[in-house]
Amino acid sequence: MQKTEWELAVSSSAALLMWIAGVVVVLVLIGAFILGRRIQTRESRRPRPEEQPKMPEGGPVGEVQEYREPDEVPQDGGRLRPHELHEGYGTSSTHPSPSQDPADHKKGDGSSFGSGGFGS
């Protein structure tokens, strides 16, 4: 089956458009690479190995677990607003509790909201 002149013209123009689109994509990728290189040369250099942070003399710093004194809730029926919180915006106490015994700090079996109980 032979193609007409019009069908040949359409297929050749479609092929030409595909080539042009391919060249445009390649040019955009090359331009992005060049732009990335220029930006990279303006950035500060990477630190050398001797400029990297070193481990402390005594080895890695360990995790400290200790019980803190609780912040008291007002007993007058009022409520605390964010600007009234201890040392601002919910920061917890910075004083260690006199007792570090876990049994002294065990949560009770209350049935208040959020305790998981049925709330009788």
Provide a descriptive summary of the structure in words.
By secondary structure, the protein is mainly alpha-helical. The protein is 32% helix and 0% strand. The chain is elongated, with a radius of gyration of 35 Å. It starts with a helix and ends in a 78-residue tail after the last helix. The mean pLDDT is 75.
Topology of this structure?
Blueprint: H1 5-42
How many DSSP E strands?
0
User: Ranges with pLDDT <50 over ≥5 residues?
Assistant: none
| Termini gap | 88 Å
Write the H/E string, N to C: H
How many H/I helices?
A: 1
Strand content: under 5%
| Major beta-sheet overview | none
Rg, rounded, reads: 35 Å
Structural class: mainly alpha
Oligomer: single chain
Give the rounded overall mean pLDDT: 75
Overall shape: elongated
Helical content class: 25-40%
Question: Could you provide a short overview of the structure?
Answer:
With 120 residues, the protein is mostly helical.
Provide the descriptors you would attach to this structure in a database record.
mainly alpha; elongated; 0% strand; 120 residues
